[in-house]
Specification:
Length: 338
């Protein structure tokens, strides 16, 4: 099998009812479509059986989360390429062809993503991946088309292929052998930042990751947890710190972690005092504590990554502080950044 599109589902029957038809309509000639079900309690399996019999279903015995759910599902699929696709994605005509053709002709590219636009406003980029992801020096993710909460209108300004640091987990096209070589997504993360972590590890091995905006999809976003959910805040902070601990070179680690100590607690107090959000305030403190408690579990991972990496730093992790550029310099668009 050349390409397996794999949708990880947990209680997403309504999303699949709405968006799975577009995936089948525009993908059936180029890919096999799977749904891996994370022990849903809604009518997802009945829906698939009765309305989408052409979809291959993998039933997982419990909710393993995003990372381990995909790892367990993909271990059951023999394909040259995997395409991890969210259930709240609407695809378009011709969306797969640019991705497949580029990967077939660029052996040094391990993964890629399409351009993500918002279903709610189709003229805007979508928050979760926009037109390709990067990190700043301190681990803050940003995209072509989205810096923090500022999402740009898509006026074709990023309609050219480019190397990126991370491809969004909402629509992540990856070589199966590379996915398996790096051990897939880190299951300990459960959800959030796991695709950034995996892509960073792939980049450190010397492989490229690209965004191909000729391919376009539309994303609902926030379908599992809303942005203000304290659990999402906890996972984002804990996992982001863990990712930095695993992947940063030794020369950067101490400085970055010291800065993040101040920046994280500053963010927590801003959530409490300015936004009156006690849940997110507590979530940041819990995340810092959780990272400290489990950090040593990743010592072996860190040693292996640093030892086998073909590169210690990658240019797509930019050397500036995004906080400084955004809040002090007032640079709100990707094209404004240094």
């Amino acid at each position: 099998m050349k390409l397996a599109i794999v949708i990880l589902n947990w209680n997403g029957a309504e999303m699949m009812r709405r968006y799975l038809p577009s995936v089948l309509q525009y993908s059936r000639d180029e890919a096999t479509v799977y749904v891996a079900d994370n022990a849903s309690t809604d009518d997802s399996l009945t829906l698939l059986r009765e309305h989408f019999p052409e979809v291959r279903v993998i039933v997982l015995e419990k909710n393993w989360g995003f990372a381990e759910g995909y790892n367990r599902a993909l271990a059951q699929i023999d394909a040259e390429y995997y395409l991890l696709l969210n259930s709240d994605i609407e695809v378009t005509h011709h969306w797969l062809t640019p991705l497949i053709e580029y990967m077939d002709t660029h052996d040094d590219v391990a993964a890629c993503q399409p351009k993500l636009l918002s279903i709610a406003n189709r003229d805007l980029f979508e928050y979760a991946g926009a037109s390709g992801g990067y990190l700043d020096r301190y681990g803050y993710p940003f995209c072509r088309g989205r810096l923090f909460e500022t999402v740009e209108a898509d006026n074709g300004q990023y309609d050219y292929p480019t190397d990126i640091l991370w491809a969004t987990g909402a629509a992540l096209f990856v070589r199966a052998r590379i996915y398996n070589k790096v051990g897939g997504l880190d299951a300990r993360f459960f959800a959030h930042n796991e695709e950034i972590d995996m892509c960073w590890r792939i980049r450190l091995l010397g492989y490229r990751i690209v965004c191909l905006p000729e391919s376009v999809v539309y994303h609902v976003g926030g379908g599992t947890l809303p942005k203000s959910n304290p659990m999402k805040t906890f996972l984002n902070f804990r996992n982001n710190l863990t990712m930095l601990y695993k992947c940063l070179p030794q020369s950067e680690l101490r400085h970055v972690m010291r800065c993040r100590w101040w920046l994280d607690y500053l963010a927590a107090w801003e959530m409490l005092l300015l936004k009156r959000n006690l849940g997110d305030f507590r979530a940041v403190y819990r995340a810092r504590r959780a990272f400290k408690q489990w950090r040593r579990q990743f010592d072996a991972d860190r040693a292996a990554i640093q030892q086998r990496g073909a590169e210690t730093t990658v240019p797509e992790q930019r050397r500036f502080s995004l906080l400084w550029q955004y809040y002090v310099k007032g640079r709100k668009h990707f094209s404004d950044l240094p």
